[in-house]
Design brief:
This protein is α/β, with parallel strands linked by helices. It contains 13 helices and nine strands.
């Protein structure tokens, strides 16, 4: 398989899970001290990942949780942010100015800053009070933190079982990538040079559609896209879909599945150019169906990791190239 590193996939998962006990200790101290609310703060891809998890948390936790775009939080403020707030963040580089500004704003309000920043010496890491550093995906990092808070509140009874099975997570995601490789290669060959891409997702995959369209197709592959939530698809976007319009639907195993199925049923009436990536079609050995909802974003991320590889190859465009992002002063 092209650009496929099983060791790297497993390492990313294992490094995050190895910090779980330390995260639990930190969360327990916060809970013993007492807190009022939690703010999930991100921008761009990290906001999208937080949105994925927030979609789950809204239906499974009674913790008072707010989802905030870092730049908007700094500009607009939030009267709920205060001395008994916990701001949860993730970042790879730690150099995104909007995130650093948001964290400084949170500290001014007295909030506790808690999160994962890969680069320990970065500006954002230096502003983070409770800091963990490792490589790996942002979703799993946020999940480890938020499940620990849910456990302390008595909301996630299958906590121990989940982490027993999470020992198989790296291998499970490797299997997903293997199973997805042929279909994603065919997708890239068919659509790699299309002039426009519509990416639709609902529930926990609304954030995945947003992230994939913006952070991968636009930023890394220079492809024109629009992401649409399944909930909003019937309130505008359907009017510009034609027979040959390229539409990609991300379909998960969470509460948003019914919305995705509604879009899937309708599209063939007006369009002949539809691709559906359904997480349910891919197997995760060692992971029970009980946890497939919770892991839906990670399964989809494994699928589109293979889309990335094949689009990069078809378009002969290395994903590391940037013209403006972190290249110009803005």
């Amino acid at each position: 398989m092209l650009k496929f590193n099983e060791d790297a996939i497993k390492k990313d998962v294992e490094e995050t899970l190895a910090l779980r006990k330390d995260v639990e200790v930190a969360v327990k101290k916060i809970c013993e001290k007492g807190y009022d609310n939690i703010f999930l703060v991100g921008i761009g891809g990290t906001y999208a990942v937080a949105e994925e998890l927030m979609s789950y948390l809204k239906g499974h936790s009674k913790i008072e949780i707010y989802l905030e775009n870092a730049a908007d939080l700094t500009a607009e403020g939030n009267t709920k942010l205060g001395e008994k707030s916990v701001m949860v963040i993730t970042s790879a580089t730690g150099n995104t100015p909007e995130m650093t500004d948001a964290v400084r704003y949170g500290k001014e309000k007295g909030a506790t800053i808690f999160g994962f920043v890969d680069e320990k010496d970065s500006p954002l890491a230096k502003e983070t009070e409770i800091l963990f550093s490792c490589k790996g995906g942002a979703y799993l990092k946020l999940l480890v933190i938020m499940l620990a808070f849910m456990k302390e509140k008595g909301e996630f009874e299958l906590y121990d079982l989940f982490y027993q099975q999470a020992e198989s997570l790296g291998d499970a995601l490797i299997n997903v990538q293997k199973e997805a490789d042929k279909k994603t290669e065919e997708f890239a060959e068919k659509h790699g040079e299309d002039s426009m891409h519509y990416v639709v997702g609902g529930g926990m995959l609304k954030g995945a559609a947003y992230s994939y369209a913006m952070c991968y197709m636009e930023e890394m592959l220079w492809m024109r896209t629009k992401s649409i939530s399944c909930a909003d698809f019937f309130h505008g976007t359907l009017e510009i879909i034609e027979k040959d319009t390229n539409v990609t639907l991300f379909k998960g195993e969470d509460h948003g599945r019914a919305q995705a199925e509604r879009v899937e049923r309708f599209l063939p009436r007006i369009c002949d150019n539809i691709t559906v990536f359904d997480t349910k079609e891919y197997h995760t050995p060692g992971i029970d169906d009980t946890f497939r909802e919770l892991l839906t974003p990670m399964v989809m991320a494994a699928i589109y990791a293979r889309i990335n590889v094949h689009l990069e190859n078809v378009r002969k465009h290395p994903m590391e190239i940037r013209r403006y992002y972190h290249k110009l002063d803005y």
